[in-house]
Structure prediction request, 161 residues.
Amino acid sequence: MNIEPISNGNLRIWLAEEEIEEWGLEDSHGDGIRRLVRRALSATGRRPTSRMWAEMIPVEGGCVVLISPTVHKRCQPAVYAVEGDALLEVYARFTGEAAQVYAVEDIYHVVLYGEEGDTLLREYGHPLGCGEEVAAHTAEYGQWLFTMPAPAPPVGEDRAH
Prediction:
């Protein structure tokens, strides 16, 4: 692990693939990222704030974790992990701008390109990160399924016989 202080109290942490496993970061439901943030802040003599922002970005041979002591306005696009049953609820209730849905291993990733829909996705899933790098990683390693909101099904005369 290499911790690098950058501007405005932000930190950049470089992790090798083995370290990702050691910290338990491959499991998005674990508390590995919290432990990593506390360790990095302690190592640099910084104190955690009530709201921290951490973003994991996959790179060749590991990942980079960016930590900021302030919560930024949500960057775009934002990527959320959503379980199968929850995805059905999101699909039924989604009214935001375009969002791409991908199958990545055994979970769905929703790439949101607007502000609207953020609350719904936080309710039924959890954020994986934001920015073009995270969206590109999802597109590269996931299988695109569909775009939300889906067009309305044909009714009446529009329906094919």
About this structure: The helical segments are 17-22, 32-43, 84-93, 118-124, 132-141.
